[in-house]
TrEMBL record:
Similarity comment: family membership: Belongs to the thiolase-like superfamily. Beta-ketoacyl-ACP synthases family.
Protein name: Actinorhodin polyketide putative beta-ketoacyl synthase 2
GO MF: 3-oxoacyl-[acyl-carrier-protein] synthase activity
PROSITE patterns, alphabetized: KS3_2 (PS52004)
SUPFAM superfamilies attached to this UniProt entry: Thiolase-like (SSF53901)
Highest taxon above the source species: Bacteria
Pfam families listed in its UniProt record: ketoacyl-synt, Ketoacyl-synt_C
Biological processes per GO annotation: fatty acid biosynthetic process
The Ketosynthase family 3 (KS3) domain, residue ranges: 1-401
Keyword Acyltransferase recorded: yes
Lineage summary: Bacteria, Bacillati, Actinomycetota, Actinomycetes, Kitasatosporales
Keywords: Acyltransferase, Transferase
Length: 402
């Protein structure tokens, strides 16, 4: 599979809405984590989140769309519009079925669904919106983006938890190979409502600390979980020849992808992350020494951090490659974290700078990784992005500069 070009990016993160704002905040180490305000968190043991505060997505959309969407779908529509604008791509200029959409999702329109269920039980069925029939569904973002922009090419949704955003990029890449000219892909995810919050609490991986600077500390001796957030990135990916033919600017290339499942618990076999990494490198035709930086999944729990560090040491050698996790400034955005890391890695390759992993001051020596905790300027040509999902999903994407 030849590399595909990333020609457009639409970024929405708790520490910055839009690429310039997000990148400036990330390089300055400014976090978007804080007290949860979307609903009253006082009855819950976890009260921190990464919320997008400086954007009113509903104000950017027609009223008819506001009535049939929840916050995540509105954010996805905004990100898709920004990505297409950044790519300089008007789908109307291409053949009717040339452009499609693949997104990833973990919660669908849970906020919309919760509101309508509350109406059902408190007021009766006559108060339930007809839009409930589709607004809750995992494919809602793909569908709404497709309708809004007239994208009649192939469309689908990937549901593999935190790995889903990278898996969506891979699915889009396969569709380009099958004849699509361009795809909108990635994820804006992380529903913040009591319904989804209860599900996140059941996983047992959220930090219960109250200080946002002390709650999400991957690879740190104090790590006790992560902070959840909302956001992510939608990207426009194109066949490199098609992008070149229309004179598109290229942010970078997706050169390799790998995925693997963890074995059944108690099997004694190694987790699948190392296999995903080696698959991505093999597909890109890279040696481990070709990778200049790794954007880690950074689970924030000791067991999972240990597994990730072991996989990196096995592939690259102890401390063999700089590792960073700028998601400590945004929280883990469910399926949105992987595409956001891809966009961040492309910006890092553009500016020759590794963004920091903030707040981590006591990295465990036993992990044997070169964790970047302050901005590091260095020569960068290639990057590797990792993402893992609850239930054993592992994915990796190999990126190069334009």
């Amino acid at each position: 599979m030849t590399a595909v070009a990333v020609t457009g990016m639409g970024i929405l993160a708790p520490n910055g809405a839009g690429t310039p704002a997000y990148w400036a905040a990330t390089l300055s180490g400014r976090s978007g984590l804080g007290g949860l305000t979307r609903f009253d968190p006082s009855p819950y043991p976890v009260r921190l989140a990464g919320e997008i505060q400086d954007l009113d997505a509903a104000a950017l959309l027609p009223s008819r769309l506001r009535a049939q969407t929840d916050e995540l779908t509105r954010l996805s529509l905004v990100a898709a519009e920004w990505a297409l604008a950044d790519a300089g791509l008007d789908p109307a200029d291409l053949p009717e079925y040339a452009v499609g959409v693949v997104t990833a999702n973990t919660a669908g329109g849970f906020e919309f669904g919760q509101r309508e269920l509350e109406n059902l039980w408190s007021k009766g069925s006559g108060y339930v919106s007809a839009y409930q029939s589709f607004a809750w569904f995992y494919a809602v973002n793909t569908g709404q983006i497709s309708i809004r922009h007239g994208l009649r090419g192939p469309g689908s949704v990937v549901v593999t938890d935190g790995a889903g955003g990278l898996d969506a990029l891979a699915a889009a890449r396969r569709l380009l190979r099958r004849g699509a000219q361009a795809m909108v892909t990635g994820a804006v995810d992380g529903s913040l409502c009591p319904w989804s919050w209860t599900a996140l609490l059941a996983e047992g991986r959220l930090s219960t600390r109250e200080d946002p600077d002390d709650a999400y500390l991957p690879f740190d001796s104090r790590a006790d979980g992560h902070v959840a957030g909302e956001g992510g990135a939608l990207l426009v990916v194109e066949d490199t020849e098609a992008a070149r033919a229309r004179g598109a600017r290229t942010h970078g290339l997706i050169e390799g992808y790998g995925t693997a499942f963890d074995p059944a618990p108690g099997s004694g076999r190694a987790p699948g992350l190392r296999r995903a990494v080696t698959q991505a490198l093999d597909e890109a035709g890279w040696r481990p020494s070709d990778v200049d930086v790794v954007f880690a999944d950074a689970a924030g729990t000791p067991q999972l951090d240990r597994q990730e560090a072991a996989a990196l040491a096995a592939v690259f050698g102890p401390g063999g490659v700089p590792v960073t996790a700028p998601k400590t400034m945004t929280g883990r955005l469910a399926a949105g974290s992987g595409p956001l890391d891809v966009a961040t890695a492309l910006l890092a390759l553009r500016d020759q700078v590794i963004p920091p992993t903030v707040n981590v001051s006591c990295p465990k020596e036993e992990y044997c990784i070169d964790l970047v905790t302050t901005v590091r300027r260095t020569r960068l040509r290639r990057a590797l992005v990792l993402a893992r999902g609850h239930g054993g999903f592992n994915s990796a994407v190999a990126l190069s500069g334009p």
